[in-house]
Amino acid sequence: MGSPEYFEGKWAVTVYDTPEGTATIPMRFETVDGKTMGYFVEDASGSEKEMSSVSITDGVLTAYFNITGYDVYLSLKKVDDESASGSLMDMFVTEAKKVK
After folding, report:
1. Where are the alpha helices (DSSP H) in the chain?
2. How much is the pLDDT for 43?
3. ∠ CA 52-32-63 to the nearest 5 degrees?
4. Taking Cα atoms as reference points, which of 91, 36, 27 lies closest to residue 61?
5. Which DSSP symbol is given to 99?
6. What is the pTM of this model?
7. Phi, then psi, of 87 in degrees rounded to 5
8. Whole-angstrom distance, CA of residue 94 vs CA of residue 100
9. Looking at domain 4-98, which CATH architecture does it have?
């Protein structure tokens, strides 16, 4: 089951078949004092933006954030030690791989 420790660190999150095509979004999650925070890189500048909220319930991470002018949410569930899967907006298939 996905825990805050499992999701800790950097991830390459690929969202398939959106209207703009398939996109990989660099993301990072950290838990401090029991609160999980998320960050993502929206463009080539490489600068991180903070997500609006992140929660982990029953092993599923749910993150809310605004990207390219859209408020979206992402869900991820552990597949194995190095990968997770889920969806963006319950519409687009999403796969995540841990970044070493």
Report:
1. 4-7
2. 87
3. 25
4. 36
5. -
6. 0.94
7. -150, 160
8. 19
9. Beta Barrel (2.40)
Please report, for the chain, the start and end positions of each structural domain, with discontinuous segments joined by +. Answer: 4-98
Print pLDDT tens along the chain (100 aa).
789 999 999 999 999 999 889 999 999 999 999 999 999 999 888 999 999 999 999 999 999 999 989 999 999 999 999 999 999 999 999 999 999 8
> How far apart are alpha carbons 76 and 53 in whole angstroms?
14
Do 98 and 2 touch, CB atoms closer than 8 A? Answer: no
Tokens encoding 36? 């999980």
Length reported for the chain: 100
CA atoms of 77 and 94, how far apart (whole Å): 10
40: which 2 tokens? 């993502």
pLDDT of residue 89: 97
Predicted local distance difference test score (pLDDT) of residue 11 = 99
Answer whether 41's CB lies under 8 Å from 47's CB: yes
